[in-house]
TrEMBL record:
The keyword Transmembrane applies. Pfam families: DUF2975. The keyword S-adenosyl-L-methionine does not apply. This is DUF2975 domain-containing protein. Keywords: Membrane, Transmembrane, Transmembrane helix. Coiled coil: none annotated. The chain crosses the membrane at residues 12-32, 52-71, 91-113, 119-145. InterPro entries: DUF2975. It comes from Holdemania filiformis DSM 12042.
Length: 159
């Protein structure tokens, strides 16, 4: 598989994730949070922080997707092992960790309101685990891209 085809497939993956994120953060999460607040007889003022945390998580997701899109563009231009890709992956790592922390804050706030259903707690733990895995994978890839860039530079200097 050549770089252009790989970049195309990765960009297609980004588009699919963006659409799924729009459905998830635009429809599912707001409806679920509103139903929880109504079910537990809470006020709408108690719902607002949860909705704001959800919007913040969505913004972080789309920033990470934009960074990954840029990485895919550089891969398509045969610049897989460059400093910009390593930096982009490091930023994705930081964003994943921040998003994981936001999920923890959201779960703690729901626990404080006494609306943290066990299924939601398990879902939150799953999302936090996924965020941690994405952060570790992104940081590892950033490290490997940096090493590959150094090797590529050394090889270019020898030739």
């Amino acid at each position: 598989m050549d770089n252009k085809k790989l970049a195309f497939l990765l960009k297609l993956f980004v588009v699919i994730l963006a659409v799924l994120g729009l459905v998830f953060f635009g429809l599912c999460i707001p409806s679920l949070l509103h139903q929880l607040i109504l079910f537990y007889h809470r006020t709408l003022n108690e719902e607002l922080p949860l909705q704001l945390l959800s919007v913040t998580a969505a913004v972080i997701l789309y920033i990470a997707l934009i960074l990954f899109w840029r990485i895919c563009t550089r891969i398509g231009r045969n610049r897989s092992f460059c400093h910009e890709n390593a930096e982009g992956l490091r930023w994705i790592c930081k964003l994943a960790l921040f998003d994981t922390a936001l999920c923890l804050i959201c779960c703690l706030y729901a626990l404080f309101l006494n609306i943290l259903h066990p299924v939601l707690m398990l879902g939150g733990l799953g999302i936090m685990a996924l965020g941690g895995l994405i952060a570790v994978a992104a940081y590892t890839l950033a490290y490997l891209v940096t090493i590959a860039e150094q090797i590529q530079t050394e090889n270019e200097l020898m030739v």
